[in-house]
Amino acid sequence: MTTPSRPPAVSAVSLDIWGTLLGSDPAFKPARNAMLRDALAPDVATDVFDAAMRQADRDVDDRVVVDGVDVGFAGRVEQTLLRLGMTAAAVAERAPELMARQETLALAHPPRPLVPGLPAAVSALPVPVVLTSNTGMLPGELMRKLLALAGFGGLPGVFSNEVGVAKPRPEIFAEACSTLGVPASQVLHVGDNPIADVHGAEAAGMSAALVRPDGESTLDALRGIA
Ligand SMILES: [Mg+2]
């Protein structure tokens, strides 16, 4: 994995969230999927619904790195129902209620730092930091609460559902640089996805470091920023 050849001047850092800083609580997705299944597809077996949700999520993520079109909670639930051969017509109307229930479950099972030392390592960075994330099922508004619970509170966040496009599109990286108030050429983006994070950031004029999604790799990358 790359440790980045350090650019001449790193004046600020942009950090991916999932697989770079945070991982899910293993209890969250099963609880969230059970809630959605009970609400929308009670006749579908739990394992069948879980598999459809997982596959829909993956299919959407595979498309996002190609076209950068952000697909959020409702879109991913719709894709799950379509995979199950069901109609997705009810999802849009019920999305606010289902999102609220998802939020309750996420706050009860918040994500965790991939390794315990990560929040302190991010706080200790001597340069400004922004979090730049494709939000998927969990929108920025909820992510801010979850980040605070995981020890990353108070950091500015640039979230795909709020920007309207996802990494690897340059607009989201431009928004991150603008939040930092630093030219792209002086910003290092750290993330675990070679396309969304590395190609995306480099195409936006930033430098990039690819990390393994194990937390330790992120710690190594952060140690290199002095
Ligand atoms: Mg990631």
UniProtKB/TrEMBL annotation:
Gene3D superfamilies, per database record: 1.20.120.1600, HAD superfamily/HAD-like
GO molecular function, one term: hydrolase activity
UniProt keyword annotation of Thylakoid present: no
InterPro entries for this protein: HAD-like_sf, HAD-SF_hydro_IA, HAD_sf, S-2-haloacid_dehalogenase
Keyword terms, alphabetized: Hydrolase
Keyword Transcription regulation among record annotations: no
PANTHER family the UniProt entry points to: HALOACID DEHALOGENASE, TYPE II (AFU_ORTHOLOGUE AFUA_2G07750)-RELATED, HYDROLASE, HALOACID DELAHOGENASE-RELATED
Protein name: HAD family hydrolase
